[in-house]
Amino acid sequence: MPRRSPVKPTASHQRHGECIRRTICEGRPTVSRTEQDVNGSRVATAAPGDLLRRRHALVVVLTFLTGSADAVGFLSLGGAFSSVMTGNMVLLGLSAGRGDAELAVTSGCAILSFIVGVLAGARLAGSAQPDDPVWPRQVNRALTLELLVFVVFVVVWELNLPEHSERVDLVLLMLSAAALGVQSSAIQRFGVPGLSSTYLTGTLTSLIGGVAARSPWHMLRPKAQVLLALMAGAAVGALAALHLTAFAPALLIVPLLLVIAVSARFPR
Question: Residue span of the signal peptide, if any (predicted)?
Fold first, then answer.
């Protein structure tokens, strides 16, 4: 039987598409590209690591915003949290045990507003797709909605200075919780397990577990950065809420504007 000569790749074979897919490699979120080779099979090639570092840096900025919002909400808006729904559920349970109707309304409204924000954010951001870039456009759509909610927050806050009534405080808390619910859904679009800017108990558990297992620092550093950003945001937010009341909302607007502006330059 005569031997077949090798088939030369045609121009159509040479053309290849590529897509971004997320993987978790040694505990670190990474992005890999899959390309078609001349035989039609999929070959994975690494995406630029600097895009991942930039994305993580922006998530850290959003976590700083979360800490600030929680501090402002707890100290100035009725003693509930804007993003820590576990804490608000505990407060709701405490209110039932103590017969504290005011605390029940405050914590309950925060929880409901957060849920509404999550639903709205999920509708805009959608779910992770195999061909997603490092920073999908849908994430910024959700973050833009969050920005609009915070703009309303700022307007209500400033118009009711120097002191807010209890009703105004409740409205402000609900706006803040809804905005952070949107943000939670936006971060979920990345499809990276464990990546969040709002609920971080799992991040702390993972960090301490990694320390106990003597994991390399490059695996622990992203988790530590997020947790430090949360605490730093809470500290700055507390100072602003107590001593610079008129400027406290800037801690919610400025970081979000920065993230939207920088992420708009990511490759799509």
Answer: none
